[in-house]
Design brief:
Elements (H helix, E strand, L loop, with lengths): L1 H12 L24 H13 L5 E8 L2 E12 L4 E2 L6 E2 L5 H13 L20 E6 L5 E5 L6 H6 L12 H9 L8 H9 L16 H13 L3 H13 L20 E4 L2 E4 L2 H4 L1 H4 L12 E2 L1 H12 L3 E2 L2 E2 L3 H7 L20 E3 L4 E3 L16 E4 L5 E5 L4 E7 L1 E2 L3 H12 L10
Parallel strand pairs: 7-17
Antiparallel strand pairs: 1-2, 1-16, 2-3, 4-9, 5-6, 7-8, 10-11, 12-13, 13-14, 14-15, 15-16
Length: 426
Amino acid sequence: MRGKRLAWAVMMACASPAVFAPPLLAQTAPAEALKIDKARIDAALKAMIADGRAAGTSALIWQDGREVYFGTAGMADREAKRPMQRDTIAQIYSMTKPVTGVALMQLWEAGRVRLDDPLAKYLPEYANMRVYAGKDAAGQPRYVAAERQITVRDIMRHTAGFAYGAGPTPAHDAYVAADPLALTIPLAEASRRLAGVPLLYQPGAQWEYSIAVDIQAALVEKLSGERFADYVQAHIFAPLKMSETAWRQPDARLPRFAAMNVKTDGKLVQQDPAAARKLNFEDHALTPGGFGLASTLDDYSRFARMLLNGGELDGARILKPSTVKLMATDQLDPAITERAWLPGKGAVGFGFDFAVRKSPPLTREENRGATGEFFWDGMASTLFWVDPANRLAAVFFVQTIPYDGTLHRDFRAAVYGPDYKVPAGD
């Protein structure tokens, strides 16, 4: 059990009510037109294989309503000598989170939930939360009552105060002991277990990546009366024709599943297929909102293109344009200055289950991108983003653990070019 908890803790390691920024999808095109250079992107993908950062890579980019790039490099399974292909199925981990956010915002559009309602209105177990407040003179942990209720908005922007695995405080220890993401329990039980764990900080005080998106999934179940996976299938995947995206994949797809690679002593080591594929080819009671989906480039690109198109794709309306704008608008009050590792992703804020770029890169080392883009990634170093200014959606697949941000830096540099909106000088 200790090993299992540690594994899940490693896996998991991969905001004021007012909306302050203008609608991001309303931005006009930049003065410099972005043209995709296929040779440059091909070279970047191949370099990731050559220098040992990835075993296999693939990418798909749509711009102005058409496919402008597809490419692969390396192997989906080195031991089987199976190359990365367009229909390779990859574990996308936290790229599951935006899907969950879209599901909850559909129910918000239907008037089933309000963003500034207390979470306890729908999930009563969160009515009386305690907050860790350090240790007393005797070295014993202190806990105080939450100064306000956790809101639905808090769980969508990671300001609820929840933990997400092991850490340095007794509250983290309580989280590990509760094991709220055990695959053997349903979402309702996961929520009940989490409600008994003290918060790390007062609701709304800090940004801290957390289990909150799994609570979004529990809320979707409560509001809809459907199993979370069934709701997502009926209301997102089926309308978008995302036929190969699922938490539980059919056994027939196993030959297309990409192997997971873990960097050990500076080298990528391919994981045992049975262990690496356990999550997606066995039945589990838990359908997580924050991780667990496996998908193909084309399937996830359909999700990204829907967002780029303001909530609609090929006649299927998933969200209203105004709802997509709301999700892709920074929700973090400037007073929320404690933001964990979020600033490491660049000049960004955070909306609802997306990071949101607020300005061009501030340094030459920062990832390339356009103001107004929104994005998220996964523990195995996968990435997607939506760039309204350039009318572009990009999806990048790789199966490298731990998360390697240099892969994103190099892929983005290849997409935008080395001089796209970068500061002058070194």
